């Protein structure tokens, strides 16, 4: 996986044996379902298909799992499958760092916009909590028009 410098991929919090991990073990350690791992491979979201053992079963190495961990992070921050596919496609080609940077900067911008919206919503929730605490603290009893359930 020389196409992506190791410093750009998440560290693993577990050891991977030289022969790799089964799909079940990879699923358990990454938190990604078995079918999702197969989907990621089928849709070209991983750099390379997982190696196979003599019986044809997938074996995931440390580089595979680091890439998957990065993929999970991007998904959890809202990156689209199309953009992850574009990142994987670019990562297979040497010299595409500038294009990858543009893709990540665009994603960062969307994450920051979403974070600002979420912070605004949190502020509104905090104001509501403060208002309810004032009402509860002042009166200590539900309002007459509020069912006490």
From TrEMBL:
The keyword ATP-binding does not apply. Keywords: DNA-binding. InterPro entries: DNA-bd_dom_put_sf, MerR-type_HTH_dom, MerR_fam. It comes from the Bacteria. GO terms for molecular function: DNA binding; DNA-binding transcription factor activity. This is DNA-binding transcriptional regulator, MerR family. The lineage of its organism: Bacteria, Bacillati, Actinomycetota, Actinomycetes, Propionibacteriales.
